[in-house]
Amino acid sequence: MPVLFRNEFRSPLPRINEALVQRTAELLLVMTGIPDAELSLLLAGDKQIAELNSSWRGKNTPTNVLAFSMTEGPDSAMAFNLLGDIVISVETAAREAEYEGLSLHSRLQVLLVHGFLHLIGYDHEKSGSEAVRMHNKERELLQELTKKRREKMIKLAVNVDHVATLREARGTNEPDPVLAAGICELAGAEGIVVHLREDRRHIQDRDVRLLRQTVKTKLNLEMGATDEIIKFAMDIHPDMVTLVPEKRKELTTEGGLNVAGQKKKLKMVIAQLYDAGIPVSLFIDPDSRQIGAANDVGATFVEIHTGRYSDAAGEKERDREYELIAAAAEEAYEAGMRVNAGHGLNYFNTARIASLETIEELSIGHAIMARAIMVGLDQAVREMLGLMI
């Protein structure tokens, strides 16, 4: 393997996406034209890197990154495609990330690029001009890395609420959301989502009961944290529950759940559902305060609200909202939670969110159902999946 990767940072938090770190190193080899070169990468703690810093540089303090090149001098191993070793302190990187307002993985990526450039001959300490050259190359590589897609395909969960909306508009028995769910699964969806509202404006109790019997992938029940709906969820036992805010007059969910403002209540609800063996996700805005609160109350998942990103009026606003989502997803992942996202995503804006490595699944409903009117539900789901590769 071109990248020999070891993670010797033993603390469970912050959580490290090892696959992402290794893939970043592999991409650097490809991007610089040496895909067959061998690189050793070690993630360590402050104590370990301080010992290395003392032994090799005479500095008895931790540092963020060390690079030991094997491509220089009379004993150069470049003939055997051996670049050398990069050692990064996760503890120092985490402190720097917090100070700079970055996610840990963003900071690790910067340090990895910096150490890598040292291995291939760049040295900012030689002269001012060399420092500028290295800085420009760092910026170039970091920009290119942000354009690279995730390696593992993200999952699609289809919300079939609006099939029921159309049915309820005429008060008949069609179209059937249960049949629609089966078509979505056959087309490649890996989850079905329904929102059982207090006013039963679309999905009905019977729909959820039938879906629980027929869904072959995963049934995600969106719901408000009310006693009636909690009791219903514990009775039918979906594969997971997503707690969402709910207002009777809203057309659709308008924003994320205020977890920080109701921690005591949500902690009790989550514990109740966990006791029944039902994992819980919290639908939240991309806000650090809400992520911290979600972690405090014991959520297994968070679903990042992508509504403001989807509704952005221009490119600048969309970019800003995208960065908030990316940072929130990484913060939640690093805290040990699993991350999904959804709301308002469509055939024009989904691909960018789907490229985020820390997000496992996207929940999409309205756009797919709207497209299905034109091309059929099977094709609408397959087209969305094609955008998520």
Helix tally equals 16
Number of domains: 2
CATH architecture of the largest domain: Alpha-Beta Barrel
Shape summary: elongated
Can you describe what's shown?
The chain is of the alpha/beta class and 389 residues long. The protein is built from 16 helices and twelve strands. It has an eight-stranded parallel β-barrel with strand order 5-6-7-8-9-10-11-12, surrounded by eight helices. Strands 1-2-4-3 form a four-stranded mixed β-sheet, sandwiched between helices. Helix 15 crosses helix 16.
Brief write-up:
The chain has 16 helices and twelve strands. It has 389 residues and is α/β, with parallel strands linked by helices.
Task: Record keyword descriptors for this entry.
alpha/beta, Collagenase (Catalytic Domain), TIM Barrel, 2 domains, eight-stranded parallel β-barrel, four-stranded mixed β-sheet, 16 helices, 48% helix, 16% strand, elongated
Topology, element by element:
Elements: E1 3-7, H1 18-31, E2 38-44, H2 46-57, E3 65-69, E4 82-89, H3 90-100, H4 104-119, H5 128-147, E5 155-159, H6 161-170, H7 177-187, E6 191-195, H8 205-214, E7 219-223, H9 227-236, E8 240-243, H10 263-275, E9 280-284, H11 288-296, E10 301-305, H12 307-311, H13 315-334, E11 338-342, H14 350-354, E12 361-364, H15 366-375, H16 377-387
Parallel strand pairs: 1-2, 2-4, 5-6, 5-12, 6-7, 7-8, 8-9, 9-10, 10-11, 11-12
Antiparallel strand pairs: 3-4
